[in-house]
Amino acid sequence: MISKEQLEQRYKDVFESKSTHVVRSPGRINIIGEHTDYNEGFVLPTAIDKAIYVAVGKRDDHLIRLYAEDFKSYFEIALDDIKPIAEGWPNYILGVVNQLRERALPLGGFNMYIDGDVPLGAGLSSSAALECAAGFALNVVFDLQLQRVDIAKIGQLAEHTYAGVKCGIMDQFASVMSKAGHVVKLDCRDLSFVYTPLELGDYAILLLNTNVKHSLASSAYNDRRESCEEGVRLVQAKYPEVNSLRDVSVAMLDELVKSVDDDIYTKCRFVVEENQRLNDACAALERGDLEQLGQQLFRAHEGLSKEYGVSCPELDFLVEYVREFPEVLGARMMGGGFGGCTINLVKKSFQDLLIERLTPIYQTKFGLDLTAIKVVPSNGTEILI
Ligand code: GAF
């Protein structure tokens, strides 16, 4: 947690003026429902107690000046010159600004100081948190009258256009809309949602960060999305009323995709089954059946690894290792994949022992540090007052 006073002071040091607002926008976890959001399916995320913070203030000119504490790096551009840069953190903010300008909203120059405690590249959506923090802050500073959901959509489009990842809406939605102590069951088709209390009794959510991030993750992500869209096109040949994999059954895939392209078939079937798993997991959570919930997590991992092909040896190892322990009810890779964290449902009293045992084994096997992160379901984006 970084305090408002610290952020205001750092803004003052960097820009030699006073900020007017400080915004906190959190990272997220997702209990289950992976790669379903861009297929109009369901997801079950919530924000965590790790966030991106921005302090912001208007300028008298039309310049945007940014400073990212993590990279100790400045960036400056005139509002009228906005375009994506080759790569790097400014794109997430520039992408948001670009979206606001495309909507002809009245923006002026501003300074923005950025800090945070969401581990970067860990699959906890630090980029979505940054987009939402920036969108939320600019909404307040320039009185743009945007709703929270608009800010999430703007963040998603920023990611598509300025970061080149054709992501779904889950990460941005979770960052702005979450409620402490709850998960959000979000229907990504119409963005209707319900909050469900995350009551885990003697169990807790523990994240294990592989500290692996594969450089081809973005293109592999976009490839998966294309495979899903191709599967839908094949089904539409006979069922034109189908819009997305949400409308597709395994029987339809068996009939129309299997013999045409086995790889597309396997990936599409994973998505259809993942939606079903999410519904089963929600029902288990509602009746307090944590064992059943955990089983769904293990099954989801199998699918993500063997069918959807978005895991990696480090993630597979972590999930296999924890399977041995009765104190771990479930585990799976989380988020887009190819690195990042596993999410584990672990008996509270066993967490530290598990971390202690696993850390040296992981280090010996992969030559990498393992980082354990305990998270608490938290509120979405807010102005710090
Ligand atoms: C990433 C994306 F940004 C999300 O939209 C989602 O598709 C997720 O991967 C996989 O479920 O976090």
TrEMBL record:
The gene is galK. It is found in: Cytoplasm. Substrate binds at E34, H35, T36, D37, Y221. This is Galactokinase. It comes from Sphingobacterium griseoflavum. Residues 91-178 form the GHMP kinase N-terminal domain. Keywords: ATP-binding, Carbohydrate metabolism, Cytoplasm, Galactose metabolism, Kinase, Magnesium, Metal-binding, Nucleotide-binding, Transferase. HAMAP family: Galactokinase. Residues 10-58 form the Galactokinase N-terminal domain. NCBIfam families: gal_kin. It comes from the Bacteria. Pathway: Carbohydrate metabolism; galactose metabolism.
